């Protein structure tokens, strides 16, 4: 591994606490649709394709426009590039819908819900597919905005070290972990998501990583 993909050993315990906290540890259940949330991580589309081939859902929606961090990587929009990747993985073109306007997680679900209604697709259950550390925030947001459906969360089953190596930038991963941890409590306070358990060890690990300088994704 290069130095850019090495997890700092003096901070590993705290990083692992947050990594495990955001993993919902769900077993994906057969559902009406798989919803892939756009980001910089093409592994979301890989995971969606894997679950489709396993028969977990008959339809995929990829949702996402661009964030400043994804414009150069996905210049035509996250959802469009995700779909192309899934099709390359053998998913039939006709079973993938794209929602190319959403710029945040709330919009991901609001716009996807409207898109499925426009296509006359009844939805009582969904698998939410995201980056590994986005699972809890995706769950909490969907429960707030789409409470009547049954949801399970899924992500590529990678260890922290394997995920960091796949992204190629350990600082980015740690900053995103810290930012998503803050959003769990702040978004619930602001009514954007339902409240989630927030154990003491998570809060303490979050605080130590903030003090260590991982603040670029804080709101």
From TrEMBL:
Pfam families: DUF218 (PF02698)
Domain DUF218: 45-151
InterPro entries cross-referenced by the UniProt entry: Cell_Envelope_Assoc, DUF218, Rossmann-like_a/b/a_fold
Gene3D superfamilies assigned to the protein according to its UniProt record, in alphabetical order: HUPs
A GO cellular component entry from the record: plasma membrane
Origin superkingdom: Bacteria
PANTHER family xref list: DUF218 DOMAIN-CONTAINING PROTEIN, INNER MEMBRANE PROTEIN, PROBABLE PERMEASE
Name of this protein: DUF218 domain-containing protein
Organism expressing this protein natively: Acrocarpospora pleiomorpha
């Amino acid at each position: 591994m290069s130095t850019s993909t090495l997890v700092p050993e003096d901070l590993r315990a705290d990083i692992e606490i947050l990594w495990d906290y955001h993993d919902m540890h769900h077993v994906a259940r057969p559902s009406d649709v798989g919803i892939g949330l756009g980001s910089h991580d093409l592994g979301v589309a890989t995971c969606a394709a894997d679950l489709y081939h396993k028969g977990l859902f008959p339809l995929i929606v990829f949702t996402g426009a661009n964030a400043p961090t994804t414009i150069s990587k996905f210049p035509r929009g996250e959802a469009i590039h995700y779909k192309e990747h899934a099709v390359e993985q053998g998913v039939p073109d006709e079973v993938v819908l794209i929602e190319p306007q959403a710029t945040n997680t709330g919009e991901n679900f609001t716009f996807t819900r409207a898109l499925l209604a426009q296509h006359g697709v009844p939805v009582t259950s969904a698998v939410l597919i995201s980056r590994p550390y986005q699972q809890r925030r995706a769950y909490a947001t969907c429960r707030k905005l789409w409470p009547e459906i049954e949801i399970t969360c899924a992500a590529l089953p990678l260890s922290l070290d394997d995920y960091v190596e796949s992204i190629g930038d350990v600082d980015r991963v740690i900053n995103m972990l810290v930012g998503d941890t803050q959003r769990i409590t702040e978004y619930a306070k602001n009514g954007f998501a339902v409240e989630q358990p927030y154990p003491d060890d998570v809060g303490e690990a979050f605080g130590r990583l903030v003090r260590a300088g991982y603040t670029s994704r804080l709101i």
